[in-house]
TrEMBL record:
The keyword Nucleotidyltransferase applies. GO terms for molecular function: DNA binding; endonuclease activity; hydrolase activity; metal ion binding; nucleotide binding; nucleotidyltransferase activity. InterPro entries: CRESS_DNA_REP. This is CRESS-DNA virus Rep endonuclease domain-containing protein. Keywords: Covalent protein-DNA linkage, DNA replication, DNA-binding, Endonuclease, Hydrolase, Metal-binding, Nuclease, Nucleotide-binding, Nucleotidyltransferase, Transferase. GO terms for biological process: DNA replication. The keyword Flavoprotein does not apply. Residues 4-109 form the CRESS-DNA virus Rep endonuclease domain.
Amino acid sequence: MANDTVSRSWFAVLPYPEKIYKGSPEEILEQMKQQWIGDNPLKKGHWAYCISKEGMPHVHMVLEGSVSMRFSAVRKCYGKAHLEPTRGSRKMVLQYIHKRGKFAEKGERVVCFVSYGNIEGNKTKTLINQNAILDRIEELIEDGKTPNEIMGEDIRLRKEETLVRKAFFAKRYRETPPYRKVTVVWHLGESGSGKTFSYTKLCESRGEEEIYFCAEYANKGVGAFDLYSGEKILFLDEIRSTSLPYETLLTLIGPYRTQIHCRYANAFALWEEVHICSILAPEDLYKGMVKSEERERDCIQQLLRRINKYVYHYKEGNKYKTVEVEAKRYTSYEELKYSVKKGNEFSYINETNTPFREEKDE
């Protein structure tokens, strides 16, 4: 093949990898992956260690980059491999490597495989018509991808955003029981006490991709969930009495698989955990949300019984601290603050290195 042949996706076969790499099949694939990715996280790849019917060990590979690559450049990485531009779609290539569907071969055995990123295959073969686009969306949804991940696969899928979201939530709706357990944590404390910083800590421990952060409640929250993609944790920041209607707040932290109004395509509440940050205790927020003449019907117990834990944030000098209280032990905000002054146990959020450090205590 000419050294100046260019492709964004290359298919390769390396026979007898043990002649070059050492270790088990899994270790060999890991070495080959690291050799390709190097310090360029934008590269992608899929490697499968196989043994043919005749007993020959070999590795099938799909090698991709963020831009088109010359044959000579790919050859430098795997000098002994047979290379050619990828001819099939992602689905076709993976079926061939793993010997599934029409590519099934008796005697060919896939020992193990490893991948990095989501390979795309030959895009001209993937999204050539509307049916192919729909098939691709369905495939990605069945693979467990979120709308954001799906639309990140190919810019042409963004024009199908409404379809992607509807299909995604239809699948997740079927998988989610009508009644599920939802853990609700109420973060309270004065302004500047580090409540929102708990979002950063949550991202570090649970992963940013698992958390939907919401801090915009214009028009009573209309549009606040337009970008929700099925994240497992909902983080409602700076909730005030004017942020949301009381019935909407109850719905968001309730256990039922309910529909959420969005401007373009409605979503469903699929989260399993909710964190609420407010300078107000729930009893004070309730008084601002519900008129006195309506409180007999919309009682505060509807809110309180949904809360599992309270986290009180406060400062002691330049240190940010917290006290956690189970809902059954919570009596009032004032009692919680009083217990801190008495010297009950607390835990540090951080020392002095936080984004909320202030020169003067509030």
